[in-house]
């Protein structure tokens, strides 16, 4: 859960500000968003979608980790994914969002054609916002899988979504701060690398290549 919070907080400073500024402009053109409560509902809808995705991915992780023989392989696989996404954050590898560019275009077209008829339809827009293909969200979903629980997966994504709100509220100001976006991407990448390292060591420990590391009742790997 701390990893989800840090990813949301730091990752949103560099990633969401650049990607979601266009979304916020699209929403801002809807007359209903002159009402600030519409923005509250939109963010609530976005976080609802994240939580539902976290529930599904957490349940998926719970199923996968029930197969003891696969734990080592899965841990190492998720470590590799985490390292790849961390390098994508700082531009060393292509962003996974490029693979979903067609989906992103269709999403944008649907939002432009969406007419907000009432205040509560802003919540529906928020639900759709949560489905926007996003490398940061894909990264956070790894934490949901790692939670090995549907409910913890949902909670991880709820915490992640809540942590992105400050940056999205200040998107216009932060968009002009390229330096802050650079260091925040680096911090988010570092968090993810540490997360990947923990996964890798957990896999190696399951294979008997290294010892498990515990501190009291808490097991690092």
What overall geometry do the principal axes of the alpha carbons give?
A: elongated
Instruction: Name the average pLDDT.
Output: 81
* Helicity range: over 70%
Rg from Cα: 18 Å
User: What is the N-to-C order of secondary-structure elements (H for helix, E for strand)?
Assistant: HHHHHHHHHEE
Q: Which assembly state applies to the chains in this document?
A: single chain
- Total strands: the figure is 2
SSE blueprint and pairings:
Layout: H1 2-28, H2 36-64, H3 71-89, H4 101-112, H5 121-129, H6 135-146, H7 150-169, H8 171-175, H9 178-206, E1 214-215, E2 218-219
Antiparallel strand pairs: 1-2
Structure, explained:
By secondary structure, the chain is mostly helical. The chain has one domain (2-219). Helices cover 73% and strands 2% of the residues. A two-stranded antiparallel sheet has the order 1-2. β1 and β2 (218-219) form a beta hairpin. α2 packs antiparallel against α7. The longest helix has 29 residues, at 36-64.
Question: What would a concise description of this structure say?
Answer:
This protein is mainly α and 221 residues long.
List keywords for this structure.
single chain; 221 residues; two-stranded antiparallel sheet
